[in-house]
Amino acid sequence: MEINSTCAPVIINIENGESVHQRILLVYGRAGPQDVEFESNITVEHHSDNFPSTTWQVFNSHFKCLVHLDPGLNDIKFILDTEPFSADLQPLITNFQVNYIPLLQNPPIHLAILVAKDSNETIDAPDEKHPDDCKLEAVKAKFRCSGYLWQAFTAEQMNRHGFGRRVFRLDEEWTKDTLSNQDVKLRQTAKIYIIRSSYTLEQILDPEIAQQSPTRVDDKKDLYAIFLESLKEYGPPFDKQCYVAGLILDSHYDNSPNMKYIRGHAALGGGHENIQLGIFGSHLTHAWPKHLEDVCSCFQEAISIDENKLANDAGECELAFLHEVGHSLGSPHTPSGIMLRGFNNLNRTFTVKEPNNPSPITPSDEEGAHWHRCDAVRYRYHPCFRLPLDPPISKSLNNISATFWILDDLLLIKCPAGISLIEFYVEDNILGYIDYVENYQTETTLEISEIKEKYGGDNNNVIKLKVVARNQTECSIEDLQKYQEESKIILPEFGIAYKSHRLGMVDENFSEINILFNQFIEEKGYVSIERMVVKYDYYIDSIKFFFSDNSELKIGSDDREGTEKEFVFEEGEIITEIKGNSGWYIDGFEIKTNLDKSSEWFGGHGGEDQLLKVPNDENEMIGLYGSGGYYVNTLGIIYKKNG
After folding, report:
1. Which PANTHER family does the UniProt record give (predicted)?
2. Closest-CA residue to 607 (of 502, 491, 450)
3. Whole-prediction pTM value?
4. Is the dihedral of CA 320, 324, 330, 331 positive or negative?
């Protein structure tokens, strides 16, 4: 790096020659005398001349700028204007190199705009905005610019969390690029999908589906469902696993006396089937920057909103959309940052000045403009954020989630795919977390009394515990105290025993029953399991257990036709392991026994993969438990200490 003077620009947040994985790089640095109050500019020039020069603010020696990169090695000049603080009018120049390596192997985030069938293809905007800035082409440019700002912000945040220069990529195509207002060249740039819906403007603006409407009808198809349906109708690339940021073009603020809210708007994020989707209305899009050259002016402009014409939307920042994208990537609401209300400070990420603030905005002054640690840990192992040298996740572990085991006052958590994060909630608020990013951790033990003391409070709060695995599966205990109490059972012959984490979902209409492999019954002596008959199709319809005293127990229903298979136990043979797939019901399973025999696979392969076996060599399996109605709803194992 060549520096002409101690006042020449110095890049702080990235090393010279470092590799990154996003097209727009956020740069923070110092330039000029550090003990003098002054304002100046830095010009960023590209040696390749593929992108126009851009100019950025310097405020009391601090500067932030957004640098366009081409794939490969980029030679960049940072040129400081010295006139405000020096009689020597010669600019000071720093030459810098950055290597941009696109992560084309990772699934991208698609930027999509939902347009009503009969849309007028304009957005709400203040009267002073030029009519062309309210049209669909301008919205596409603003959305593209915002997508690259999200990307630049996230890449910087992941690096600050110690996870390297990992970031999601945007779906791109070779087309006319709008990131600069100085040219419109053909470049590889973010593709904007125009999703022309089969729904009319009247249907999109229906007050009964507007998120803010006091007359909203909850059982009516909402905007999220309409967006999902429209993506599926569009076809590829939305016909397979995908991640989508969806903008609703036709959102409109209705200021009529009985309305006063935004129709055609919903701020939601999550997923359904193969589509992970975050959606937002277009009512704030007028305030988004259209080009990189607009970023500073947009984020420093004090916009006066005429609330008789436009939505103020609780004074929210124009980049609140990123919150919903976070939900689509798996983030919950967090104690701070973007997934709280931190998007209101997102302007501070990109500028060193803001109105009525006499001090420069340094990285330590960005306040809510950050991804919380829980978000960053999730993204560290997210498929959209993988780096080329990340080890692959074994296909056999791809869908396995964590299991929970009570051992007296200890909670043992096991996950062969690796535990990345444990979160502790009270009333849906994260009060604490433990992350496991340093080592590949497949199990951990927590003291339940310590957790209750730390998070239970004086009112014995209900504590929820959520485990996130490296393969992105999540598994929860909704009430730790209740789970501990219900997991511990007293059996006449065995004394204290425990129920494992169950497969499937509990239906309160059906009671769970216990099936013990061997037990002593006063009138009959020792009774042991002899055979098991499983009836199934895509789900497990029923499981029947037959015992040596000619008794039987059944879980589920055998009223339907289906495949029926039998497994016969030899003398002294018992189940030691269950591999299962489950969601709402038990989709399918197989068993392994103490004689090293395995059954065939019974049922289907939907839902998550799970493995049930005793947590360690100090315990033994003594039975199963489960419940069922129309199908087998739940299945788990019963275990106790050896002896």
Report:
1. MIP04191P, ZINC METALLOPROTEINASE-RELATED
2. 502
3. 0.90
4. positive
* Residue 318: per-residue pLDDT: 54
Specify whether the CB–CB gap between 588 and 574 falls below 8 A: no
Per DSSP, which regions of 436-502 are E strands? Answer: 443-447, 463-469, 474-477, 488-491, 495-499
39: which strand partners? 59
Rounded-to-integer distance, Cα 315 and Cα 620, Å: 59
User: In Å, what is the CA distance from 457 to each residue of 172, 333, 348, 431?
Assistant: 50, 21, 36, 11
What was the pLDDT predicted at 3? 45
Residue type, 63: F
Which residue, 410, 441, 402, is CA-closest to 619?
410
For residue 256, give every residue at least 6 positions away whose Cβ sits within 8 Å of its Cβ, in sequence order, or none.
none
Q: Are 591 and 575 in contact (CB under 8 A)?
A: yes
- 8 Å CB contact between 77 and 161: no
pLDDT of 640 above 80:
yes
Give the CA angle between residues 220, 221, 224 to the nearest 5°. Answer: 135
Q: What is the CB-side half-sphere exposure of residue 142 using CA atoms within 13 A?
A: 24
Dist CA 629 CA 200 (whole Å): 42
- Give all domains of the chain, ordered by start, each with its CATH number: 10-100 (2.60.40.10), 109-385 (no CATH), 395-482 (2.60.40.3080), 492-641 (2.100.10.30)
Tens of pLDDT, residue by residue over 525-558, are 788 999 999 999 999 999 999 999 999 999 998 8
- Tokens 């419940």 map to which residue? 627
* 26-60: pLDDT as tens digits: 999 999 999 889 999 999 999 888 899 999 999 99
Contacts 24+ apart (CB under 8 A), 425-431: 425/463, 425/464, 425/465, 425/466, 426/455, 426/457, 426/461, 426/462, 426/463, 426/464, 427/461, 427/462, 428/333, 428/464, 429/333, 429/335, 430/332, 430/333, 430/334, 430/335, 430/374, 431/335, 431/455
Tell me which amino acid residue 239 is. Answer: D
Number of helices and strands in the chain (H, E): 9, 39
- Please list the residues that pair with 334 across neighbouring strands: none
- Contacts of 248 by beta carbon, 8 Å cutoff, 6+ apart: 113, 114, 204, 223, 227, 264, 265, 266, 279, 280, 281, 282
Tokens 């997934």 correspond to 339
